[in-house]
């Protein structure tokens, strides 16, 4: 944590050297300008958005599955609007601000309405400053002109920015060091650069001479909104000079958690993503963005000057795989203990010694286990402010956790120094929040880097936890990225075992009677999640029965039973694990096939009558009218059978889970239509569970004002998908798609789960959804891309409106992006994530 301020009282005489001074804004006003947009989208336009997805299960022979979200619709409203933004101060004399200096205060005034309108520019309010000229530019600052008569700039187009320059001088007397030299353009009351000062209703005081305001003839154009006003202020302390500061930002997210081969919690893989950048915007007006240079580290037992991204291996885990460093970076490793070393050479003699880094990668299991830190060092000596962000991967295995899992906490750090800072203060940023260089959310510098405390070892008790996992930590807390790992091992025991294919001893979430095999039907592409599927839906399962006892079991039989009977069977806890009898559509058929090698592989078909399963097949050469009986089963022997489930047409909607309990038992009456499993002391149930798709997509939207911060309508899907509020041109629509694998998680052991592999969430701005189309996306034609795309995991592909891939990093504001794809390698059962993107209404 470093606030690299330096004071210099020297003045340059080397001619004209404009010195850019950022506005002193605690709320982070200094953000990139909104893009210049085309004429506003017509009022009443319905902007429609439906997301789709494709994914596969672990069975490579099954077809690709489809998922479709609900539809969100937003109506465009006509508005008048204006914002004012401080864009910096030029000291035309260079050096520190002193008596008699000529300063130019720069502001951006923007029409955020949806049609051309006049904007009134007032005489600014000043403090310790004498205004000599107020000028405007409509060509992005190339040419400045005096304000027109009446101070009204006419016909400012929709989403057009007018630059205002207020030139004046600092008094030659009556001012002391520290006094603010201040210019305020407009008067909204607070005049503090908060969102409350932007695009506010002008009301009845629209003639006030000190306001930046629109001059719309609202009655003439029929706009259902008031004229708007805005204000902005910026200042610099007398006798001070801007200090350069490198603003490094390190973010950490969990890409995915991959379960291990066992249900225990000590063999899972956690895949982290690190995102590093050096910002070219300042959260504090007294500091100007600078490049990041290296600081001193210990490399190969010698000192070296490097920019270092460091990530400590979390407690309870070990390095899983060698990270792949991006171009321009080298991966380094340290095996020095976290408690006795720090990542860099300490600037304080009293701090811990530096860890030794090496580029020699571990190769043996013991060497992987010995790695305590993974680092990435830049090959360049400095990184330019505003350079493209860089991503680093890190995967760890939870080999040090207990069998039942635990919490894994992690914090990453980036180290360097500010270019041109002769004091050599360390610039450090720690993951978990969105503020650079460990600055506070207010824009003020946090505590200075303390090598005795900021060791890189996670400590949620003092550092706090980024509870959302999206770098939204605030204040001095919320730095640690925390992952909760769960695991169980439950022994299976019975005299007959019935379970998933090859796993008759599987154990379910509750006991040995609710182990399961999950499978999904191929839901049609574009099928609305709230509409009944027209055609039949089918899924197949393979199961295995075994005899773990020391005696032969006579006439081993399998059959489907209702959830009600399954819950009532001996030794089965009633916990709802069978979904309930009402969940099974009447008319559902279950066909069992004997897979024993060398048999005729006859089948028997059951049909659900609303209460129970009854045999409906007749005896033929390939079918039978009696339960599937394998005959006697010797000790340790196994038999296999196949279950085909067909749901009747028009009986289910997508994302329905239907459990078919399958009971196996030695039958004393194998010729009976309904085998007498309830009278047997020995039976075992497994579940063949059918899903009509298992990836749930929920689409939400919210509307933000032109300042990107004020919420007009918060996250909602609205009645029938239509939001209550309307979005005006220049305002922002944020879409959020929450996805979840609704299938049963891998609790217990030996169960066949439904991973969603190659999950591809698709946001196509011009797609017709369904066949025939039930909805058509048109958001690409009516909105423009804005940065702030957020994917909780996986990668994002950006496509142009014509479908060409344009990149894998968040595109610049206004770039042609008509389609997004969020690709996640695997979404495990019960796994979930979000994808969020921002658009501005044209």
Keywords:
mainly beta, 7-stranded antiparallel beta sheet, 6-stranded antiparallel beta sheet, 5 helices, 40% strand, disordered N terminus
Computed Rg: 33 Å
The total count of strands amounts to 55
What is the number of helices? 5
What is the average per-residue confidence, as pLDDT, rounded to a whole number? Answer: 85
Q: Termini, distance in Å? A: 41 Å
Overall form: flat
Strand content is 35-45%
User: Which structural class should the secondary elements be placed in?
Assistant: mainly beta
Protein architecture, described:
There is one protein chain. This protein is mainly beta. The protein has five helices and 55 strands. The strands form twelve sheets. Strands 20, 23, 25, 27, 28, 31 and 32 form a seven-stranded antiparallel β-sheet that branches. It has a six-stranded antiparallel β-sheet with strand order 1-4-5-11-8-9, with no helix packed on it. A hairpin with an 8-residue loop joins strand 38 and strand 39. The two termini are 41 Å apart.
């Amino acid at each position: 944590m470093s606030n690299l301020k330096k004071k210099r009282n020297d003045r340059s005489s080397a001619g004209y050297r404009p010195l850019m001074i950022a506005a002193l804004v605690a709320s982070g006003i200094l953000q990139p300008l909104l893009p210049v947009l085309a004429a506003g989208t017509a009022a009443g336009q319905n902007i429609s958005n439906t997301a789709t997805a494709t994914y596969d299960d672990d069975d490579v022979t099954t077809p690709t599955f489809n998922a479709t979200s609900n539809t969100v619709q937003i109506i465009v409203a006509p508005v008048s609007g204006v914002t004012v933004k401080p864009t910096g101060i030029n000291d035309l004399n260079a050096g520190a601000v002193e008596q008699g200096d000529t300063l130019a205060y720069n502001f951006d005034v923007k029409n955020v309405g949806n049609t051309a309108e006049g904007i009134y520019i007032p005489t600014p309010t000043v403090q310790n400053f004498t205004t000599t000229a107020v000028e405007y530019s409509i060509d992005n600052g190339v040419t400045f002109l005096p304000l027109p008569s009446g101070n009204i700039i006419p016909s400012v187009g929709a989403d057009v920015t007018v630059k205002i320059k207020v030139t004046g001088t600092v008094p030659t007397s009556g001012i002391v060091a520290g006094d603010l030299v201040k210019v305020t353009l407009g008067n909204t009351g607070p005049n503090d650069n908060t969102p409350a000062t932007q695009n506010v209703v002008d009301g009845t005081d629209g003639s006030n001479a000190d306001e930046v305001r629109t001059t719309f003839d609202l009655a003439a154009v029929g706009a259902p909104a008031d004229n708007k006003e805005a204000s902005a202020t910026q200042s610099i302390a007398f006798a001070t000079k801007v200090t350069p500061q490198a603003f490094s930002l390190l973010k950490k997210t969990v890409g995915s958690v991959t379960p291990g081969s066992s249900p225990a919690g000590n063999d899972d893989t956690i895949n982290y993503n690190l995102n590093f950048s050096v910002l070219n915007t300042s959260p504090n007006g007294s500091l100007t963005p600078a490049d990041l240079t290296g600081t001193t580290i210990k490399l190969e037992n010698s000192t070296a000057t490097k920019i270092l991204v460091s990530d400590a291996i979390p407690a309870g885990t070990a390095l899983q795989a060698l990270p792949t460093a991006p171009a321009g970076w080298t991966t380094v490793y340290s095996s020095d203990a976290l408690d006795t070393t720090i990542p860099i050479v300490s600037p304080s003699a009293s701090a811990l010694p530096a860890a030794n880094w090496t580029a020699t990668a571990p190769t043996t299991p013991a060497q992987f286990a010995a790695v305590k830190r993974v680092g990435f060092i830049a090959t360049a000596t400095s990184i330019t402010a505003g350079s493209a962000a860089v991503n680093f991967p890190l995967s760890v295995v939870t080999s040090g956790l207990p069998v039942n899992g635990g919490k894994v906490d992690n914090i990453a750090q980036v180290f360097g120094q500010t270019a041109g800072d002769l004091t050599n203060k360390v610039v450090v940023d720690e993951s978990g929040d969105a503020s650079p260089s460990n600055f506070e959310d207010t824009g003020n510098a946090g505590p200075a880097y303390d090598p005795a405390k900021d060791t890189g070892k996670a400590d949620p008790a003092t550092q706090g936890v980024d509870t959302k996992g999206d770098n939204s930590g605030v204040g001095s807390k919320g730095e640690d990225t925390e992952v909760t790992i769960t695991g169980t091992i439950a022994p299976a025991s019975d005299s007959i075992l019935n379970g998933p294919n090859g796993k008759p001893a599987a154990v379910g979430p509750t006991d040995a009677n609710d182990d399961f095999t999950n499978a999904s039907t191929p839901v049609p592409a574009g099928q609305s999640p709230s509409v009944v599927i027209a055609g039949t839906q089918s899924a197949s399962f393979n199961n295995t029965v075994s005899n773990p006892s020391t005696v032969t079991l006579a006439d081993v039989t399998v059959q489907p039973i209702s959830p009600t009977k399954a819950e009532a069977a001996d030794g089965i806890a009633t916990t709802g694990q069978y979904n309930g009898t009402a969940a099974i559509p009447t008319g559902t058929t279950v066909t069992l096939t004997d897979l024993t090698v060398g048999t005729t592989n006859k089948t028997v078909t059951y049909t659900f009558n609303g209460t129970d399963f009854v045999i409906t097949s007749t005896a033929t050469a390939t079918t039978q009218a009696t339960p599937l009986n394998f005959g006697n089963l010797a000790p340790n022997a196994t038999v296999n059978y196949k279950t085909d489930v067909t749901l009747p047409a028009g009986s289910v909607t997508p994302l329905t889970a239907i459990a078919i309990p399958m009971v196996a038992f030695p039958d004393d009456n194998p010729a009976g239509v309904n085998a007498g499993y309830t009278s047997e002391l020995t039976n075992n149930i497994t579940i063949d569970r059918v899903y009509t798709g298992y990836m749930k997509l929920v689409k939400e939207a919210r509307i933000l004002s032109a300042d990107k911060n004020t919420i007009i309508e918060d996250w909602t899907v609205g009645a029938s998908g239509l939001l209550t509020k309307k979005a005006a041109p220049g305002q922002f629509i944020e879409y959020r798609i929450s996805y979840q694998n609704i299938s049963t998680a891998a609790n217990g052991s030996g169960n066949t789960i439904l991973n969603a592999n190659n999950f591809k969430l698709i946001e196509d701005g011009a797609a017709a959804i369904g066949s025939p189309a039930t909805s058509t996306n048109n958001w690409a034609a009516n909105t423009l891309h804005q940065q702030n795309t957020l994917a909780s995991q996986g990668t994002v592909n950006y496509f142009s409106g014509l479908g060409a891939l344009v990149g894998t990093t968040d595109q610049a504001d206004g770039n042609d992006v008509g389609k997004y794809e969020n690709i996640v390698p695997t979404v495990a059962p019960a796994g979930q994530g979000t994808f969020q993107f921002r658009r501005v209404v044209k």
